[in-house]
User: What shape does this take?
Amino acid sequence: MVKKLGVYICSGCGIGDSLDTEKLAKVATRESKIPLCKVHPFLCGAEGAGIIRKDLADGAVNTVVIAACSPRVKTDVFVTGQEACPTLLERVNIREHVAWSHTAKDEDTGMLAADYLRMGIAKARKCEPLEPVSETISKKLLVVGGGITGVTAALAAAEAGYEAVLVEKQPQLGGFVATLKKRFPAAAPYAEPTADGFPEQVQAATYHSKIQVFTSARILKTAGQPGMFDVTIETPAATTEVRVGAIVMATGWKPYDASKLPHLGYGVSPDVITNVDFERMASAGNIARPSDGKPAASVLFVQCAGSRDKDHLPYCSSVCCLATLKHATYIREQNPEALVYIVYKDMRTPGLHERFYRAAQDHPLNFLTKGEVTSVGSAPDGKLAVTVGQTLIGESIELRVDLVVLATGMVPVSADGILNLTYRQGPDLPVLKHGFPDSHFVCFPYETRRTGIYAAGAVRAPMDSVRAGEDGLGAAMKAIQSVELAARGQAVHPRAGDTSFPSFFMQRCTQCKRCTEECPFGALDEDEKGTPKPNPYRCRRCGICLGACPERIVSFKNYSVDMVASMIKAIEVPEEDEEKPRVLVFMCENDAYPALDVAGFQRLRYDPGVRVIPLRCLGSLNIVWIADALSRGIDGVMLIGCKFGDDYQCHFIRGSELADRRMENVKETLQRLQLESERLELTQLAINEYGKLPELINGFMERIRKMGPNPYKGL
Amino acid sequence: MTAGKPILVLGGGIAGMTAAIEAAEAGCEVVLIEKAPYLGGRVARTHLYFPKLCPPACGLEVNFKRLRNSSRIKILTQAELVELSGSAGDYAATVKIAPRYVTSACTMCGACADLCPAQRPDEFNYGLSKTKAAYLPFAMAFPDTYVIDRPSCKEACTACADACKYGAVDLSQTERRETLQVAAVVAATGWAPYDAARIDGLGYGRFKNVITNAIMERLAAPNGPTGGKIVRPSDGKAPREVVFVQCAGSRDENHLPYCSTVCCAASLKQAAYVRAQHPDSKVAIFYIDVRTSGRLEDFYASVAADPNIGLIKGKVAKVEEDAATGDLVVRAEDVLHGKQIALHADLVVLATGIVPQTQGLPAGFTVDDYGFVGNGKAGLYPAGCARRPEEVSASVEDATGAALRAFQCVVRSAHHG
Assistant: This one.
């Protein structure tokens, strides 16, 4: 495409009071030789936007540079994308980042605006229009696990018109919930356990015309990418390959291994059983002592048996308290005179189950106490002797009971050959903590590091059966969305709708494997030599591969090493004797950049010597840019990205952390060049810390001034 | 997918926004209505999320970006559903939209607020601060358009309209109604904090230094009334001894008979705010049970490891004030040691619970004794804290599931309709 650039400068919102916009226009017309440059006092108004539209319609321009407000606002007026603006659009932020945050009519403010315009023009010149990519996308879903989560997911997808393949390792669907005698109270007044309609759901899934069920089945292999996963399913009868577009992993949980709890009597006596054993016994219809088959007239429940315990499961399984209260009702049904003891750390019956808890508490033959079971042994009378310490009455007590039930927790079934992904980064969905492939993001609980694959139910996080079923719905929604976005050639969260794809100039690849190792989403596989094999539909468009590549072979049509390099080159670096240091700031466009916008909105002031370049993610920072900047005489480089570490906030998981790691290498290079390593600084900033930005920037500028000019200036 | 009728989402908090965005990205048309002039609801007023202690603005920014980028979502703020008729796949919803008095021509330049002579209590900060009558709800607000609070204006004043160079202020706007044909409705109308003044003995509303957990969020937030400084309302001094009262009006048949699920983790989080800001402070948390389910256990353990944060099992009976100093005495039972104790406090934070905001939902939605919405008529689905008390991530899960149920109605109506 032959580019015809048009530059439009807005003088509204105080921009015209702060800057000489006619002088700024000359940056476009004289310096950059762009004939078409218009200044308007209200560019986002009907007239202003109309001028741009007319120039586009007339064919006078096909690439638009708008120097006005932040690219985060007025996106409905200055539209990119196919229909409204079949063209390239570059926004230059001379409002929030210039006019609103720097001294009006000041020389430095003018220089800042001019540089931003130069950078925007340079970028617009390098941008290429996106080409729509279209592949044949399967919209069928694979649901792994036929318990309540998987059955609900498959049915919900089918009811929304999507075909589903449901794979279950057992000979029948239903999972753990199908074995329950009753479930927790599920509707107001939340007082009684319920027998509900899950068996009907299982039947519906089994016979649904849009659901293909594989039982006694396992997945030998999952290859491909969203929209094009090829899954090999093995059953005793046959091995089948199916193509699906997205995957819900609902493989559930298994009980914690009680044999690790001998201190609670498990294995010491057959009359010490788990809550899962107890449920099974109650479902079978007779609650009795396994040792002699006699009725259990007194039962003691040990809560958190192997849970909330650093030596066992460090987390809370969130269902065991309610399960025990439910089990107490089973006992009561069979024997109204039975004694029930419940020893807990905290009774966790969150939400609407308070009255269920209260009813159990109020029963005269139920004894609930905070405490800690310290030993369980056999008593001479054939009963079990249980010692409970740290009770509410402050002392240790011994109880004689017929049966002890250990309320053991949930262990996710998340690893060991579930999906058998053929990914370079491993066969399983990455786990977050304690084996749960849960999302790390509070606001995005279905966020996943394997695009198009969503964990749901108790494998994702400990949860009860109602939540697990609902979680199946949510995950099915995300899976449907992922195939629909793939069909449109668009990225999923967090860059939903992005139609850019990375391309790789393989001739120059040195098989260093950095990109295949660093991609947070496992998008890149490798051939035997180590050459990356991109799977574009797994890609989330963060550009971390672009940042990782020392040969600079990765680029997007609208985001590339060359593009940013040309923006850096566009910055005018004053001579040493002008005493105007220049600092380049790379900012994460998701958090730090909006924070700087807010600083502008609040009219906070900071040093005008900085030039900001937003990056898709700080992890997409290619270190060549730092070399480019310093070799041009730029005095320092700041990197501002999201917080990293255990509680990372990076939307692309490890972007800012990877950038930080790269900095270590750059600092060594700087030392070799005899440049102070302090000319480079990486800061972690949360989006709400906009108030800190002026101090942060000014502090760095101050240190740079003290260090003196970059000796490479003017060379 | 086949284009069909839109989904109507009631409520632009985290649950409603999520339902709208998730459905739209899957291909549905969506109308999202919100009664406030801004989206984000309660999370926008939250300083940090537990357990990561990360700012909600980070996720809101992503969601606002998704909203900006989606051509499938129509957003109506200051809007309420007034009438609903029909059945699944074919509902007619009448929406009442209050005037904003500022059009989409607003550039956020702020000239209207600069020249506005009137003030209003800022509900965003629970009335702890004021804004001009022409105001932007908060710095990162979406829609990014100012609002004029007409009842707060000075009589016959047109200063804002005169100040606006862009013709964006239109004081002639009036309430309007719009009837929408929709396939399904998701009720994500959210929650409000329980009115702590109704709890006898804890002093809220009588003693200045007794605040609620909702107010603590605003005190700690950099965009709050104190610029993020946690101080005593009575004298602006830094508190040295802070007491949290769990289940303030919750798990209590006289108030909220249920557990609001989030208050334990919220107080642990707020204890961390206090300790981070005032290193010489001490915190005590009175609880019945510490309910930090699932992975939150790690967060509980990390906060409880601070030797200056004490957790005491026991219910608070009474809070007393020394009127001269504003200092407080918290009288409570220490259950584990079987004794009555009295603790001095500079600041008392009541962990008040979640009250569903479901009044005024049209017939067809079923509301239970507690006020939460259950499953109603086909095509009407609840989500988030209107449905049950839950934390943010659970609300988002719930809303994503509700989006799918609504999506099913769209598909069915497109096929049959």
Observations:
- Residues 118 and 155 of chain B are 10 Å apart (CA to CA).
- Chain B has a mean pLDDT of 96.
- Chain B touches chain A through 91 residues (CB under 8 Å).
- The first strand of chain B starts at residue 7 and ends at 10.
